[in-house]
# Entry
Amino acid sequence: MNSYPDRAELLKNGMDRLAEDLPNVMQPFGAVLDGALTDGELDSRTKELIALALAAALRCDPCIAHHAGAVVRSGASKAQIAEALGVAILMAGGPAVAYSVSAMEAVSQYSASEAAEGTQPTGVTP
# Structure
């Protein structure tokens, strides 16, 4: 089985290594990441839902792994996640369907992981 939490950890570790090799690129990227996902006129949950939908539309499995975890931790409901992925499907068609399936699997894995750790209240709600 494809473990999305493991894939997210691989992505984080790879980005940490890139930050060592490319500090002038990765430090500004980190600032953009933080700035883009911080609460503003849109709350961070909404922004993470957008990021997950874009990850599906752009067919980025490592991005799905990262943003699915953030969406679960944000407390987004399964219905909110599904609706966001519906917009990805609208905008990107059939390939987004396949990656939306992956995104929902990732969300399911993160939700199960949080439930096992006893942190379910911040996870996906029905």
